């Protein structure tokens, strides 16, 4: 398992969220859990207001959208099969997480 690997979602919302992407640093590979962000079917999300926050990808022929607000930690054994890597798009994923975690003072 590597950062930006995409795995099948084995959870109960697999129809709407077919995949998750691992975002956890390899510094924490020794832990029994992984931090992942859901990749939601674009048809479920609808209009994207902020593409930096919700970048889109085509995975296994399905258009999906990164949904950082649903970030979660899952046990290693709950991760489904590896599908592909989004390492080449890693900076866009990090940018989306920065949007989520930045200190926006208003």
Account of the protein in words:
The protein is 15% helix and 32% strand. Strands 1, 2, 3, 4, 5, 6 and 7 form a 7-stranded antiparallel β-sheet that branches. It has 106 residues and is of the alpha+beta class. The longest helix is centred in the C-terminal third of the chain and has 12 residues. The protein starts with a strand and ends in a 5-residue tail after the last helix. The model has no long low-confidence stretch (mean pLDDT 94). It contains 2 helices and 7 strands, in the order βββαββββα. It has one domain: SH3 type barrels (Roll).
In short:
The chain has 106 residues and is of the alpha+beta class. The chain has helices at residues 42-45, 90-101, and strands spanning 5-8, 19-22, 33-41, 56-59, 62-66, 72-75, 82-85. The longest helix is centred in the last third of the chain and has 12 residues, at 90-101.
**CATH architecture descriptor text:** Roll
How far apart the termini lie comes to 39 Å
**What structural class do you assign from the helix and strand content?**
alpha+beta
Fraction of residues in H or I helices: 10-25%
Mean pLDDT, to the nearest integer, reads: 94
Alpha carbon gyration radius: 13 Å
| Unreliably modeled segments | none
Shape: globular
Q: Return the CATH topology.
A: SH3 type barrels
Biggest beta-sheet profile: 7 strands, antiparallel
Secondary-structure element order, as H and E?
EEEHEEEEH
- Strand tally is 7
Strand content: 25-35%
Q: Work out the helix count.
A: 2
Helix and strand layout, with pairings?
Blueprint: E1 5-8, E2 19-22, E3 33-41, H1 42-45, E4 56-59, E5 62-66, E6 72-75, E7 82-85, H2 90-101
Antiparallel strand pairs: 1-2, 1-7, 2-3, 3-5, 3-6, 4-5
